[in-house]
Structure formats: structure tokens, C-alpha cells
Amino acid sequence: MKFFTKKRIVLFLLFIFPLLLFLILSTGTNNFTKLPVLTKNIVDISEIDSTKQTTFKNHISIVSFLGDKTTSMQPGILALNEKIYKTFLDYKQFQIIAIYPKGNEKNVAQLKDKLASFTDMKNWVFVETSEAEVAGFYDAFATNIPLNDLATDHVFLIDRAGSLRGRTADEDNPDGKLYGYSMNSVSVLNSKLKDDIKVLYYEYYAAFKEKNKNKANRKEVGL
């Protein structure tokens, strides 16, 4: 029994067991729960972007609605930037989109300047549009979260196909549905939004891996 020394047990728990767990979980492509789709085929952001340079297609997007309350929204945006944006800055096709109505350009410019003072802004996108288009675009999300003065402190996760992702068994919501993530809650950003983005990326990775596996199998049988 000398093999099971205290030192070896500690080493096993710290290094070997987590590695074994990772290998077990990564042996298949269906060993994880896909992130639920809550609203399918939302209108593409390009429809309200006057520049037509922004799109949901082939991107993983976090969408925020600033309204006219840029100053009051600033703490949440800064938390989102720190906890989410910087974490996924170098991930492929990741972007955060901030939507605001015309007339709020000065306040948005100040917010952008503040972010730019300590952030690489390459994946931050600010979209200016009319009040009617902001409201109509938000309605397409079909959430249970109200939009007040064209603003909300929740952000929304949109997949590469332009569908709203979230949770259907969230313990903090009576009906279990989590449509959006509160920017004012560090725990929600850290434990929910961050995890869900990772799940979504792994979902696409697993699909890509399976597709390549199927291609290899077809080549082997001469198809």
C-alpha cells in the first residue's frame, strides 16, 4: 500500500484525474448539451445597419441595446468588455454589437473613447439606426425582457445562423428560459454567458470535426 502515498494521491487529484476526465468528455462529438435555440432566424443586423457592413452570418455575436441611456449603461458595458469581450477577443468571428438610436452620437462617442483607452476595439461594432428600427429589430428577438426607452441591461447571444441562443432550464427563471444575460451581474457574465459562448463554440467545433470525419470515411470507401 506504499504506492498510495499522500503525495501521490494529491498529484492524482490535481493533475491526472482532470486529464482523464477531459479525455473521457472529448472522445465523442455528442457528449455535451447543445445550447438551446430560443428564437430562430432573427432579422439580420445588416437590415438596420446603414453601412451594410455588419452581419450575424458566420459570426458569434453579443448584442446590446444602448438606447439614449449611454451614461447609465456604461458600468454594464465596461463589465461586459472586461469579462466577455477580452476573453473572446481572439476567437474567430466573435463580435459585440451595440445598437443605439440616432441622436445619441455624442454620448456613444464618449463611451467608445473610454473603451478604446484600454481595449483593442477591432471586434466592437456600434450600429446607429432610427428609433422605429431599434424597436422593430428588438421585437424580432421575441424575448420576455422589456425594452425601456430603447435600452436594456441584458445582452443577447446570436449564433452564426442568426438565431437567438440561451437556456431552457435556467434555475434563476420561473419558466426556466434565459433569453438574455444581465450586464450588471458579474456572476451572470462569468458563470452563464461565458460558459454558453464556450458551449456554442464547441458545438461548431464538434460539427466541423464530424463533417471532416465523414469526408474521410467517404474517401476510404471511394465515394
Structure description:
By secondary structure, the protein is an alpha/beta fold. It is 43% helix and 16% strand. The protein is built from 5 helices and 7 strands. The protein has helices at residues 6-25, 70-88, 105-116, 131-139, 186-220, and strands spanning 37-39, 60-66, 94-101, 124-129, 151-158, 164-165, 181-182. Strands 1, 2, 3, 4, 5, 6 and 7 form a 7-stranded mixed sheet that branches. Mean pLDDT is 87; it is low at 22-31.
Annotated CATH topology: Glutaredoxin
The string of secondary-structure elements, in order, is HEEHEHEHEEEH
Tally of helical segments: 5
The total count of strands amounts to 7
Quaternary structure of the protein: single chain
Main sheet: strands, sense, barrel: 7 strands, mixed
* CATH architectural label: 3-Layer(aba) Sandwich
Average the pLDDT over all residues and give the rounded result: 87
Which parts are unreliable, with pLDDT below 50 for 5 consecutive residues or more? 22-31
What structural category do the secondary elements indicate? alpha/beta
Strand content: 15-25%
* CATH class value: Alpha Beta
Compute the CA-based radius of gyration.
Answer: 21 Å
Fourth CATH level, the homologous superfamily: Glutaredoxin
**Overall geometry:** globular
The percentage helix is 40-55%
Straight-line N-to-C gap = 56 Å
Give the count of structural domains: 1
